[in-house]
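Hey everyone, long-time lurker, first post.

I ran two proteins through the pipeline my lab uses and got sequence/structure pairs for each. Pasting them in order. The first:
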Amino acid sequence: MTIKRALFNYISVSRYSSTSSLLKTGDKLKQTRIFTCEDLVDFSKVSFDANPLHLDPEYARNAGYNDVLVPGMLVASLFPRIIATHFPGAVYASQTLRFRSPVYVKEEIIGEVEATSIRGLKNKYIAKFVTKCFNNTGVLVLDGEAMAVLPTLSPTQP
């Protein structure tokens, strides 16, 4: 199984929400993800983040949480994933983040990017996005703004 196919086995991708075939201001792109304990262990190995709030349920409960917390940076990784899914070859240039509410393992998270400005630059495009993540009850858990260099304004469908 290819890596791309393995990734799409557990990531739901919404269709590009536009009546046009080109990205325009106001268009939204979304993906849904449920983070697992295995995701947290893998992220810990790659990031060297061994915070017990992310790995030890008892520690997390003693700290006042319902369960282990998904690292905020892992949740935020939905944003470049959404953009790259629809615009292969995009270069992620910047991201601001505000962590609003805890995210728990096995909680469905909806990541959303909304284009707020787009400008041409030679044969590429600079796009700014408002970025948000919600849990399955609609609570905003993470937000910010991103900028990416897109090779095209024509989105591809996974």
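...and the second, right after it:
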Amino acid sequence: MYSKYIYLLILVIFSNALKSEGFGTFGLDIHHRYSDSVKDFLDLDGLPEKDSLDYYAAMAHRDQLIKARRLAVTPADTTHLSFIIGNEDLPSQFSRIPCDCTNCARSLNLTSGKPLELNIYSPRNSSTGAPVPCNSTTCGRRRCSVTRNACAYQEVYLSSNTSSTGILVDDVLHLATDDSQQKVVDAPITLGCGIIQTGDFLDAAAPNGLFGLGMDGVSVPSILASKGLAANSFSMCFGPDGIGRMVFGDKGTPVQKTTPFNLKQSHPTYNITVTQIIVGKNATNLEFTAIFDSGTSFTYLNDPAYSVITKNFDSLVSEPRYQPDTQIIFDYCYELSANQESFFTPDLNLTMKGGDQFYVNEPIVVIPRKGGYAYCLAIVKSEDVDIIGQNFMTGYRIVFDRDEDGFGLDRFRLL
């Protein structure tokens, strides 16, 4: 995850979760913005019917928005905040919320027909909040806003003219531990005060903010660990219904194998190495790196990994190829007969560096067609970064352990 964010609506927080030896754990339920629970709550105007071709197209469009941010090399105009240091910005990993907005979404439409007014945050109205000074160690190489005398940030996406511009703010995150005592903990946190939001941030993409989970020192996991409140790790799990769970401080179990992160990058991400691809019984030794990104709906792979999986999969499928009348992002789809009640798909397994086996639980999606159904191998051919998306992560509790065994080595684990 280049800037590992969760584009999910957080509805229910701080329930029961696993414990971590010597630390507290803090858990929350997460709901994908296309899940039924969110659709029942919010009136998402224009949201296509679940599992329709338009539904998958909308999810793919959102994926492209996220991917475009990773590839952005030139930030948008920054004159609104009068930056005094350069035009480069570091990929930020902190949480961001609308704040003292001059341009942002201020309400969401509910299914009841009534608008839900968003409570826009302001550090001026917080007894514990204060802007981060430009000369602070937290600000580092980031830019400075002259007009606000505060450390500034800007996140720019290349599609849909989408961006978030603002300043960094120190405040307190109020948490409750997952044990039976429900101990209240106040965790100091640095977050992005999003003053100017543009494009999809005004409605479709995270109108009420983003949750930062990256390796940067100002991300939520880093802050909880630095204050001794939780182990420097967190876990995520996703079910097929789009509802999942995130737990800060979760170290997993001793029986889990580990896969090391690839950290020889200017901006470390949750990047791992795959050493082998197995489709059915066909094993291909092939080494490539990929980012595990819960914020991306589908899995995006370059050649040769893409061709190895798709061609082996295609050779083992008995149904005829299917080409939808409307454009679809998946290249390999197969037609089911009108009275067909079941079908076989080959197993897909990725072998990680270190020997861990990642069996993909849901490599396909079922789509409607005239007179019946079809299914598609839910992998998209990439022309840039390799991403293991949420569809491949479904059914796993994945632990991102950032200081395994106290050696300062980041580890990726699967349960």
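Reply from user beta_strand_b:
Welcome! Quick read of the second one: Residues 53-71 form the longest helix (19 residues). Residues 177 and 346 are 42 Å apart (CA to CA).
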